[in-house]
Amino acid sequence: MRQPLHKKARLEKPSVYPERFSVPDDKVDWCSYFGEYRPPYFVAPEILERFYQNPSEVDPEDCCKIKRPFYSFENKVELDSSNRPRNPRGRTGLAGRGILWRWGANLAVDTVLSRLNAETDELELLLINRKDTGELALPGGMVNKGEKIREAQEREFEEETGLKISMEDSETVYCGYVDDQRNTDNAWMETVASHKHMGSNQASTLSFRAGDDAENVLWHSLKPELITNLYASHDEIVRLAMYRFYDRCGGWLTAKTKEQIEAVIVRQ
């Protein structure tokens, strides 16, 4: 199945990035000839400095010095003429690795935490406001070297929301590429995303506080306009989570909750 074109990785960028080389939709695929393609090369100075401080966590500038193979949830990772991994979703208009620590896939985790509001009978999601962009997003973050996925999910969730929860009973809903503004031709974000639904009584006892990369953390009613404006590919992750939740638990959901989910899982 043909993967959707990445858009945020071509049309958006962190403030420290140079302007991206314009890549039209029909030139995104590496197989499409694009002779005039001249993307600027950029690696943030702080990434190079961090490598010298902690070379076990950050890749060296020279890809030939990297011993590990390059993996991706998408498919086999191809290398360019400079031995750098190529983004499996195609051109982004920027070469190098930007502000990402690793060449190739940079693995993250994301958590969809839902509850049924006992007072409004509405399905709600716990979301954060990111400090870097201000956008609403799922709680999550980078997987540390040698860390297990469940451990990373629980650690990142606690760091960003102040909540200590177990992810053992969660369902993995997505593993793959993230259309992220940090992505480049040679480094990109991938994630393992899981969904956990909490009962009303359990959820009502939670006390959270924003921390780490989060500016704020609140419950939000599940609505199409909310989901559409989430950070990166988080809208697609939520849609997948809600589709599977509906399929698995639709028998006991209220009519109002079903209506909410049905409005969201239809692509806007």
Automatic annotation (TrEMBL):
InterPro entries: NUDIX_hydrolase-like_dom_sf, NUDIX_hydrolase_dom, NUDT9. PROSITE patterns: NUDIX. SUPFAM superfamilies: Nudix. It comes from the Bacteria. GO terms for molecular function: ADP-ribose diphosphatase activity. Residues 104-244 form the Nudix hydrolase domain. It holds the Pfam family NUDT9_N. This is NUDIX domain-containing protein.
